[in-house]
Structures are given as C-alpha cells and as structure tokens.
Write a structure and sequence with these properties.
This protein is mainly alpha-helical. It has 20 helices and nine strands. The protein has a three-stranded antiparallel sheet. A two-stranded parallel ribbon has the order 1-2.
Length: 508
Amino acid sequence: MTIVLGRPLSFADVAAVASGDDVEIDPSVRVRMERTRAVVESAMDSGRAVYGINTGIGDLARVRIDPSEAVALQHDIVRSHATAVGPRLDTPTVRAMLLLKARTLASAAPGARYELLEAVVSLLNAGVHPVVPSQGSLGASGDLALLAHLALPLIGEGVAEYRGAVLPAAEALAAAGLGPVTLAPKEGLTLVNGTEPMLALGILTWLRADELARAADVTGAMTVEACLGTDRAFDAEVIALRAHRDAQEVAANLRRLLHGSEIVASHRDSEHLVQDAYSLRCIPQVHGAYRAGLAYVAGVLEAELASSVDNPMVIAATGEVLSAGNFHGEALGLALDHLTLCCAGFATIAERRIARLVDARLSNGLPDFLTRDPGRRSGFMLAQYTAASLVSENRSLCFPASSDSIPSSAGQEDHVSMGMTSARRAATVAGNSETVIAIEALAAAQGLDLRAPLRPSPATAAARDEVRALAPVLEQDRSLGPDIEAVRDLIRSGRFTDAVRRAVGPLR
C-alpha cells in the first residue's frame, strides 16, 4: 500500500505509514509548491522584514538578518532548537511525524521548495528514522524542540535509526543512498514549526483507544456473565429512555455479546439480586460517555489532519506572507487531555469489575480469588492489585496539561498549550488501560470456566477461547505477568475483538 500526498489523509493512512507503508507525491503538489515558493522569494527580494526569513525568531524577531546569512540562519534554527530530552519516541510515531510534516509541506502554505518535500519523503521510504527525544515541547510554536530533532537528519546532523541500528545521521543517510539537503530561506523555520508530533501521537493513541472501547465492552460482558449479572438492564426500551446515542450503541453491543448465554439464562427468573452493582448495570452509560468523548477527540484530530500549520504562511491568492498563530496546539492539547480521561475511565470501571470477580462475597458463587483452592493458592489476588496500581497511576496522569501555560522567549511567546505533554500522557494512560482490560479478560475467562458446565454465549466464548490460546486456565498458581502482557498485546492488536466479530458479527 502506498499513501499519496496531495490528497486528504485519514487516520488509517497515518497508521499505515506508521507501520511501514511507503509514500508518494501527487504530481499536482509540485505546481502548488512552486507557486507559493515564488511568493517567498519575492518577499525576500523586496527587502521588507518577513519573520524568520530576514529576521531573527521569537523575541529576536526585531533583529534584521543580512541576506548573506539567510541560508545559515535556517540551519542554525534547526540546530539551536534541538534541545529535546528524555526517552525517544518509538519508530511508528516518528514515521507518522514525518508523514505529517510532509503533508504540511505538500499543502504549499509554508512556501517551501518541492525538493525539501522530496527529501522528507525519501527518509520515510528509505526507512531512515530520526531519533526524537520525547520531552521539551511547550506546544507553541508547535512542538519546536521535537521537530528540530526530526529535521536534523535532513541536513546530515543529529542521530537516526536505520535497519535497527542507531547511527550518526550522515552515516544513516549514506547507508540508505541519500544525502543531506541545504535549506533555503524559511525552510528551517518551517521544519521546526507545527503540531505534527502531538498530532501523530494523538492519532495513534486515539486508534488504540477506539479499539480499547470495543474490547472493554467485550470484557464487561464477560464479567456480567461470570458474576451472574442480568442482561435486562441493557434492554433497548429502557436504554432508549435516555437520549445518548453512544450508551445505546454500547447496550446493543452487550445484548449481542450476551445473546445465547446458558449462564445468563440459568438465573433469568432467579431473585438472587434485585439489581446489579453499578460497574455491571451501568456499563452502557459509562462506556457510552467515554465513547462520546472519543468522538469529540476524533473531530479535533481530523480537523488538524486537514490543516496546514506553520508561521509565517503564504496566502497564494493574495501573494502575501503573513504571520499568525496556526501553530498553537491548544485545540489538540485540550482534546488529548480528554482522551486521557476517557482511556483512564475504561480502566477505572474495569478494575471495579475485576474486584467483584475475585471477591466471593460479590461474585454470586465464584470461589475466592477465582481459585478452586483458596488459601493454599492466591489465584487472581495479585492480578487485581496490578489493576488497582495502574488505575491509581492513571489518576495521577489525568491532571490536564492544557490547563497550564508558562511564558517563554522573553515573554514574546507568553501562552503555550503543553499539547505534547497531553499527548504523551494519553499514550501512557492508554497503555495502562489496555493492561487493565487484559486483566479483566483473564479474570472473566477464569470466571466463565468456573461456571461450567453452563456455557457462555457464542461471543464471550470466542473471546474466552482467544484468551485461552495464550493463557491456560489457572489451576496451579503461576506468574501471571506474562499472561497479562500477552493478552494486552492481543487486545491492542485488535485480534481479541476480531474473534468476537467472527462469532457474532460486527460490534458498534
């Protein structure tokens, strides 16, 4: 599969390139880029002050730059901005960043040369991946420090990964048959301006959260079944009385997931409980609220994916080069903070369901800690501890980074978004929550097996069997850490919910 620049990109396109697909450029892009590049060159020749072309940057915009220094200025901008620190971003995120930076160049609004776009695409297609530390962005003028590290290998500097080896960028380029580029006026500034890092990480995390939402419906249904919960709370008639579409969709999933269950049928006329606990009964209302949040986040990310972010920008229709604030990440930061909350929420309610599964006083007849020999064996006792620890960690990460701002550049850049911090937190919380859902899948599968000879529904049986392919029934105590990680990867890959779809059809 090859993704074409110059056409609208989708989340699936970003994920495809992040996973290794190639990129090509639509022929129409060159024409548009040459037109706006001519505007930039005309502005340079005019002698008037144009930000970042013949002036310094940030608070130093008041300083005029001699034309003879214009090219050196662009290289120095990239070098001086490369101050990011901390753990490096993973290769899929870096590839997504390169794609999004190429998309920005291909929009023609930055006024860069076509040759620069070709150089970025060549890095992607050759598999030369800049090493980009993850910390150091304020989220305006976009993710400056991170983008500078992304740009350094283009000029033969910095560090890059090529075929599994981390090398000086000049060596990586040579090994791939590529060479460095010389930046023209404005191009260094264009390379470091923008929201591509927070957008790339945001899209990839959103895709994980979207899968997490469906997996949580499946594991929730498994727990309802294992705890002898009722499916009547999910009836379409009662759910329709509250006009929240996402809750109605979750309830429809639960009805499909529980249809045909011998376990549910066995106690349908029983009066063992008047009503179930909130973590079981309110799954549609709770999961639905998080799904609505994910829809809001998707709308913001889609708008940004259709945008051009730089400063200054070329207005082709008027031939002007205008300074503005399109690089500011506030919209993304606010949405990514909400993504963090939604991912955390799926884990919070799942942990409460796990707690019910392991507590014989709450599970309607399952043995203590889901082991046939409690006391002699601890069963799932410590797995619930791990889930509780991750939920607590998630809560500590849910402070909204976008609520903060700190002035920089001698007060010139006096309000920033902290959007990349929001993106990093969202990714961490999504990972923690995937693990909690994996623990619920393991515990609920154990609960379903303990209800034998009654059979679970076709849907939850398919989910249970997918778990069992990686983690056998817990008869003797063993380390569950490897099982948890294997099932987490199963959930993250989408194979967990794919097994359910094969059994009963699509989930909403």
